[in-house]
Design brief:
Layout (H helix, E strand, L loop, with lengths): L1 E6 L4 E6 L4 H11 L6 E4 L5 H13 L2 E4 L5 E4 L10 H4 L6 H11 L1 E5 L12 H9 L3 E4 L3 E5 L7 E3 L5 H11 L5 E5 L5 H13 L2 E3 L5 E5 L7 E4 L4 H14 L1 E6 L7 H9 L3 E4 L3 E6 L7 E3 L8 H11 L4 E6 L9 H7 L3 E5 L2 E6 L7 E3 L3 H11 L6 E4 L1 H7 L3 H7 L3 E6 L11
Parallel strand pairs: 2-14, 3-13, 9-10, 17-18, 21-22
Antiparallel strand pairs: 1-22, 1-23, 3-5, 4-5, 6-8, 7-8, 10-12, 11-12, 14-16, 15-16, 18-20, 19-20
Helix pairs in contact: 1-4, 1-7, 4-6, 5-6, 6-7, 8-10, 10-12, 11-12, 12-13
Bound molecules: uridine-diphosphate-2(N-acetylglucosaminyl) butyric acid.
Uridine-diphosphate-2(N-acetylglucosaminyl) butyric acid binds next to helix 1, helix 5, helix 6, helix 10 and helix 12.
């Protein structure tokens, strides 16, 4: 079994280049199916979800080629099927974007339910509501659903809750619909804007992406094009937090600082110093972390994805902190694992209550989702002794090359394998 081993190695020091956004890339690839010519994407990260996508692409006839220099070339001209194997769709979350894109292009899609990180409840009712508003019929079966429409028709759609996924999916479905679609209470996340930018380059007519009201005038044909995915704000935020956890100084390069506004403000609030440049940010750990209260919110609020790594930081704060997750109220699988390392932290309702300042000691812990995993890695950098983290595949889903990047900053992290005959973690 693979595991990540972390040992404390003092303060971090150095710079990392941030990869393209995972969550944006997953939308951009599905959006590329809508084009009628080839699409070249820069910045798609080397993550496991890409393997799932390549499997889906093979099945439906979407050409996909990754070149050595990191470019992803997609050829949607020969897509011959809009049926996606339920197992493959359920292997990651963002497979649901193929529903919007293939529905728009072919008028029918059969697809399995989305998988991905398990936060107990991750409904897709707003995606379904949007498809239905555009005139599609949605039929549910045990492990898949079918969305079909003879002709999608533009509509006014009001989202009952702000959702990045459903906003993007509605946009995908609407770009080739007949007439005007208006999305009200839309998500304003950078990933929405990035997807709209790609589609607009193909010739889609999308106005207002990045505001809570997006207007789409349907077009019958879309060109191909070239596009670079935005930098991953969640990876960038994690490295900035790491400077606070371990101390030292970490620069993230090739970022869009505006996408990290709430993270930067919160890190300053708890005592880090930050230098914000045009495309880079440097965080300086000052050695003192102040307790705080965090409530996650949709962008531009404090990202749910960063509350878990931030919790690792607040373990080092003097006093009591409270982290409340309003977006995914059950996103606390990291808490029992952090307790194994000695953290004084408990979950009540949708909040984690943290008494900082307790010394941490390495142990064997398990990552059950991507950000829980990185929170454990960060905690391991200051836990005395050796921390071993299983569930490596979760960490790899969101952090390409994390081991090399952390070690380049001076951390002591390695990917290891416990041999079957050595017993659990018998190997050194
Ligand atoms: N929601 C509904 N109904 C829906 C869709 C969403 O009630 O039909 C709710 C969710 O339960 C949640 C809120 O709306 O409370 C926001 O959900 P959203 O649709 O924005 O989330 P998502 O599409 O399921 C994406 C990212 C997550 C990230 C959230 C933050 C991808 C593949 N996933 O999930 O990323 O946490 O947005 O909004 O883009 C991660 O990268 O670690 C990760 C989990």
């Amino acid at each position: 079994m693979r595991y990540i081993q972390v040992q404390p190695a003092g303060a971090l020091r150095g710079a990392v280049t941030v990869p393209g956004s995972k969550n944006s890339s997953l939308a951009l690839i599905a959006a590329s199916c809508l084009a009628d010519d080839t699409v070249r994407l820069e910045g798609v990260p080397e993550i496991d979800d890409m393997r799932q996508i390549e499997g889906i692409a093979r099945d439906i006839g979407l050409g996909i080629r990754r070149s050595a220099d990191g470019e992803t070339v997609l050829d949607p001209r020969y897509i011959h099927s809009a049926t996606i194997d339920p197992g493959k769709a359920s292997a990651y979350r963002a497979s649901y974007y193929f529903a919007g894109a293939l529905l728009a292009k072919f008028g029918r899609v059969t697809i399995g339910f989305p998988g991905g990180d398990d936060f107990k409840s991750r409904p897709i009712d707003q995606h379904v509501k949007a498809f239905q508003a555009l005139g599609a019929k949605v039929t549910f079966y045990d492990d898949y659903y079918v969305v079909e429409a003879a002709q999608l028709q533009g509509a006014d759609i009001y989202f009952d809750t702000i959702t990045c996924g459903a906003t993007i999916n509605a946009m995908l479905a609407a770009v080739r619909a007949r007439g005007r679609t208006t999305l009200y209470n839309a998500a304003v996340d950078p990933e929405v804007v990035d997807t709209a930018a790609l589609l607009s380059q193909f010739g889609a007519r999308i106005y207002g992406a990045g505001t809570d009201c997006i207007r789409i005038e349907g077009v019958p044909y879309l060109n191909g094009g070239a596009h670079t995915a935005i930098p991953d704000r969640l990876v960038a935020g994690t490295f900035l937090i790491a400077a606070g956890v371990a101390g030292g100084q970490v620069t993230v390069k090739d970022v869009i600082p505006e996408h990290l506004g709430s993270c930067i403000a919160k890190l300053k609030e708890v005592g880090l110093e930050l230098d914000v440049g045009d495309q880079s940010i440097t965080a300086y750990g000052t050695g003192t972390i102040k307790a705080t209260r965090i409530r996650t919110a949709m962008y531009p609020g404090f990202a749910t994805d960063l509350q878990q790594p931030m919790t690792a930081l607040l373990l080092g704060a003097k006093g009591k902190s409270i982290v409340t997750d309003k977006i995914f109220p059950h996103r606390f699988a990291h808490v029992p694992q952090l307790r194994r390392l000695g953290a004084d932290i408990e979950v009540r309702g949708e909040s984690a209550f943290i008494r900082g300042g307790r010394p941490l000691a390495g142990d064997l812990v398990h990552a059950t989702d991507v950000r829980a995993g990185i929170a454990l890695v960060l905690a391991g950098t200051v836990a005395e002794g050796i921390t071993r983290i299983t569930g490596v595949e979760h960490v790899e889903r969101g952090y390409p090359d994390i081991i090399r990047s952390l070690n380049s900053l001076g951390a002591n992290v390695s990917l290891r394998e416990s041999g079957a005959d050595e017993g659990m973690f018998g190997a050194g």
